[in-house]
Write a structure and sequence with these properties.
alpha/beta; two-stranded antiparallel ribbon; Rossmann fold; 2 domains
């Protein structure tokens, strides 16, 4: 076995976020950045999100306590709040004497072509072990160290972000029956569920072919399947924007209660929640540094242009006709 460690090369969404953050640091004042951060940290629990949170809470309560694997698969397109819901769930967990603070629920972001050694390396990083490289001949020992550490920390749930990459490393198993497929990474995940009782939450793209195509035995351990999608331009979308506008204290954001602005914002983002947050925070940044007391349509127009880029050929929906 080769040595395995994780080199985080990021993905397109992460790279875009880094570029936007860098631009904003140089472009806007500290006061504006703090205001935008307030908006960015707003969580609005719309109906689909509540359904997922209820399932997560149930698995969290049952993990380590029942003799049955707790697995959840959440599908959704990029920007549908899969990663955000994991972050929200982690932040909302109460303290417990049986759990080391900050370790009740962990999140791992999988990378392309995951393998058994890489998966164990991910787990070791999650528990902040000083040695995360899986050297030849040490796989099983390091795997056991990772499993033991998770149990000692009291971890109940692990989110596996970008879980659709498991499909990339599917191979024929020499130990399985003819025609069955599995990945070495999936074997680690099966063992993790069976030996520790920790619940696994797979966060995957809506293009994911399903866990059955990765490992049927792992798929059998995942009993809850849910999906998230983009907002339609409907009352739920309007309520989502209104809640953000009404909860924002750093600047008057009541413009989000305007139905025409809600429609324009949907045209701008297509209901993608990640793009919506980017647009709203950019509009706040523009408004704050212009000295305005309230976010106006012209601030959205400038925000859309800055996010889209000067060379973008898409018509700015906020521009006056």
């Amino acid at each position: 076995m080769t040595d395995f460690d994780i080199i985080d090369t990021g993905d397109s969404a992460e790279e875009e976020a880094r570029q936007i953050a860098a631009r904003r640091m140089f472009m806007y004042s500290e006061r504006a950045l703090l205001a935008a951060d307030e908006v960015d940290r707003k969580y609005v629990l719309f109906p689909d999100l509540k359904v997922v949170l209820e399932a997560l809470d149930r698995s969290y309560q049952l993990a380590l306590r029942v003799n049955r694997p707790q697995g959840i698969l959440v599908l959704g397109p990029p920007g549908s709040s899969k990663s955000s819901i994991a972050e929200y769930f982690q932040r909302s967990l109460p303290t417990s004497k049986d759990i080391i603070e900050g370790h009740g629920a962990l999140r791992i972001r999988l990378r392309s072509n995951p393998c058994a050694g890489g998966m164990v390396s991910h787990l070791l990083r999650a528990v902040r072990h000083p040695f995360t490289t899986i050297r030849q001949g040490r796989f099983w020992g390091m795997r056991d160290i990772a499993f033991d550490a998770l149990q000692q920390l009291g971890t109940r749930v692990i989110f596996l972000d970008q879980a659709h990459v498991l499909e990339q490393s599917v191979k024929k198993s020499t130990r399985a029956t003819k025609g069955a497929v599995e990945t070495t990474a999936s074997e680690v995940l099966r063992d993790l569920m069976d030996e520790t009782g920790i619940a696994l939450v797979f966060l995957a793209s809506d293009t994911f072919g399903g866990l059955e195509r990765v490992d049927e035995a792992l798929a059998d351990r995942v009993s809850v399947r849910l999906s998230l999608r983009y907002f339609d331009d409907d009352p739920v979308w309007c309520k989502f924007l209104s809640e953000i506008g009404n909860r924002t204290k750093c600047i008057d954001f009541n413009l989000l209660n305007d139905r025409s602005i809600a429609a324009l914002t949907h045209r701008s983002t297509l209901g993608n929640r990640r793009r919506t947050k980017l647009l709203l925070t950019e509009a706040v940044l523009v408004a704050m540094d212009s000295g305005a007391n309230a976010v106006a349509r012209e601030h959205f127009e400038i925000a859309f242009q800055r996010i889209s880029g000067a060379s973008n050929q898409v018509v700015n929906p906020y521009a006056a006709a």
